[in-house]
From TrEMBL:
Keywords: Lyase. It comes from Herbaspirillum hiltneri N3. The lineage of its organism: Bacteria, Pseudomonadati, Pseudomonadota, Betaproteobacteria, Burkholderiales. This is Enoyl-CoA hydratase/carnithine racemase. Belongs to the enoyl-CoA hydratase/isomerase family. It holds the Pfam family ECH_1. InterPro entries: ClpP/crotonase-like_dom_sf, Enoyl-CoA_hyd/isom_CS, Enoyl-CoA_hydra/iso, Enoyl-CoA_hydra_C.
Length: 257
């Protein structure tokens, strides 16, 4: 039986692919569970330094599976939302950077999944849509948190109220995506960037990611995060290696210690 989530490894980079094209990789309960378990496993893998999240067959993720929605069952709906939040927390809380490679549709929860990642690459075939207002719902999967970090307040309201469909070029213009590449170059571009992320000092990246997840905040909050993080890093082996490499004019080799 074919797995609905596959993992390919190349050195310190893992490419996680949602592989249920007949359902456009919709976040049905079994996909949410499989994706969460896969990412949780990679989060604890010390040999993995960066992760690419992709979809299969010209679709990133079509969002929640409406056919499996437990209409009128509050307890079942709460369980479903709890699983979605576990997936979201896994992405935002892990210390490793994630790159979303969006080729095709990223609708509803699929858009939330992409924007929860640290960096969004998309192709010209990408289509982003919050979609929730089309079915009488408010946004979930963290979109009320992630979307305002990327676009203006007015655009947040437009995208959430109207469920406008945004193509790859407009996504780059608005800030939904960080880079636009051709569809046939998307996989290689994501891998090249992941290799760069994987070469960065993992302790520093992890602490930076954790700090960014708690912002925006006051200047006092930011300075507190800086103080706590830097004091840890000043005593790390990675900082010692980075300082020596700088003085010796060579590339550092970080170990995550």
């Amino acid at each position: 039986m074919q797995s609905i989530v596959t993992v390919e490894r190349s050195g310190a980079v893992a490419c996680v692919t949602m592989n249920q094209p007949e359902r456009r990789n919709a976040l049905a309960p079994e996909m949410r569970e499989a994706l969460t378990e896969t990412l949780e496993r990679l989060a604890g893998d010390i040999d993995c330094r960066a992760i690419i999240l992709a979809g299969s067959d010209r679709s990133f993720c079509a969002g929640g599976d409406l056919s499996s929605l437990p209409a009128g069952d509050t307890l079942a709906s709460r369980k479903r939302m709890t699983l979605a939040h576990r997936l979201l927390r896994t992405i935002t809380d892990m210390s490793k950077p994630l790159i979303a490679a969006v080729d095709g549709t990223a609708f509803g929860a699929g858009m939330g999944l992409a924007l929860a990642c640290d960096y969004v690459l998309c192709s010209e075939r990408a289509r982003f849509c919050t979609a929730y207002s089309n079915v009488g719902l408010m946004a979930d999967m963290g979109l009320l948190w992630s979307l305002p970090q990327r676009v203006s307040t007015g655009q947040v309201r437009r995208l959430l109220y109207t469920s406008a469909v945004v193509d790859g070029e407009e996504a780059l213009h608005l800030g939904l995506a960080d880079q636009l590449v051709r569809s046939d170059e998307l996989q290689q571009a994501a891998f090249d960037l992941a290799v760069q992320f994987a070469a960065a000092p993992p302790l520093a990246v992890g602490l930076t990611k954790a700090a960014l997840a708690r912002l925006p905040g006051s200047l006092d909050t930011v300075m507190g995060l800086e103080l706590d993080g830097q004091l840890q890093l000043f005593s790390s082996a990675d900082f010692t290696e980075g300082r020596h490499a700088f003085l010796e004019k060579r590339r550092p080799h970080f170990q995550g210690r």
